[in-house]
Amino acid sequence: MLSQIKGLHHVTSMASSATENNRFFTRVLGLRRVKKTVNFDAPDVYHLYYGDETGTPGTVMTYFPFPNARRGRPGAGEVGTTRFAIPKGSADAWAERLATFEVAGIRRGQLFGAETVRFEGPDGDGFLLVEAEDDRAPWTGGDISDDMAIRGFHSVDMRLRDAGRQEELLRFMGYEEVDRDGSLIRLAVPGEAATVVDLDIQPGAGTAAQGAGSVHHVAFAVENRARQLEVREALLDTGYQVTPVIDRDYFWAIYFRTPGGVLFEVATNEPGFDRDEDRAHLGEALKLPSQHEHLRAALEQHLEPLGA
Which stretches make up the VOC domain (predicted)? Predict the structure, then answer.
């Protein structure tokens, strides 16, 4: 069993509008845009990162906004809901705030005894706010006060037809079962926050089709490149097809497809989002990987302005 995995690093999804996506995460949810760059494999499309003040691993939601992309079809083989931690006692205030912005699908509820607010993103993305004891410092540069601001990820759930080999994989990665609630199996690794993964077992679910509103992949955190190489070697030895290490400028990444169909990434906590921008100005300038710097003039003309 691996011990290098420290919980969630980031979650990456797809959107149909960069402007609307940016507005939703910065204005409605009050997260900080910590990086404005491009999809390394499709540089005519943004890659936008939102999180706490510095983009701490475990807080960062990222998006590929493909203009006018068709919506995805929810189903088995994907992350169904991305969940953020909020302070205890703030769920009602969040429900009211989301209603003020006319956010779709707002529902109060409970999950494993915690108060929750369910809602949808601009493309039907599945989100949940979960009240939790969480001492991480939030970003409060907008109009959301410290007593209700999002702390970072609480967890994700993965919609599957059966637990089977997906659960075996997570256990190999250091996760252990800690609870059950209806169709949900809760697993976690030791740590303070962003350590939970729920398996949502839906035997009759159809197969998911990716599109706007779908989670593209979920990334798990390791401290550094040495730990990442240890994880990669262990996964290869177990029979998984794992990519070589890829430099994503702000972290190094490896990817592999899981038995349940979900794409996993293992990302390093180094070097971080302030490697090429002062912390006071994260996410303001368009940052391009070196291989695409020659395209800057054309990309600045092509990519839609986002505003602050």
Answer: 7-132, 152-269
